[in-house]
């Protein structure tokens, strides 16, 4: 039974507790985004020599990927699998996520929400609102190649729990009067199961759930999400805040007034 496959991994979430400085985002254009793909420069740990052992090297590697200095990468280096597991399950992941949420909440409170429903906050879903640690715990914490079949099986369970810090932030910005949009890379075919999982995790009353349509297949995430944000702006919305675990959730064009990057050393999406 698929649920049993992840039963032990779900225990990891009890170790995840309930930062990132203010980044500067460079606006770009759709034309530039179409040319942005490039070869993977870091995937196996061969590019940088060890300085004082694996923990120090992996800490530096994580810094490189979280700041996007590494650019595109495909796998957690084999030498860092245990490091990433400890980061995710040992409390640091929860703490870093909480710091991001605190910063986002502090900003949200400074916004003069108009009250007309046109001040928007955009949330990504996976590793932002929902936590897929049970899946990645069963698949090497990002050290295994992406498998669409096993991922879709996990999604179909609709059992991903909320990331506690993000659920708290979600409710706070909702109470402040922001209109919430959910912008995900999941396909339209996964709409019903995604709604089921979100509700199971405690989320409700979003304005719109935006998923990839057939015309979006093959697009880089940064282009797809930029286009969807631009469509919201064209409807008259002002995107005050945006939360996501990937730089492609936050960068590109039609970006938010403030964007907040959650930690994710397990995978990269261009």
Automatic annotation (TrEMBL):
Signal peptide: 1-21
Keyword set includes Glycoprotein: yes
Family label: Belongs to the APS1/VSP family.
InterPro entries: Acid_phosphat_B-like, Acid_phosphatase_pln, APS1/VSP, HAD-like_sf, HAD_sf
Keywords carried by this UniProt record: Glycoprotein, Signal
Cross-referenced Pfam families: Acid_phosphat_B
UniProt-recorded Gene Ontology molecular function terms: acid phosphatase activity
Name of the protein described by the UniProt record: Acid phosphatase
NCBIfam families: plant-AP (TIGR01675)
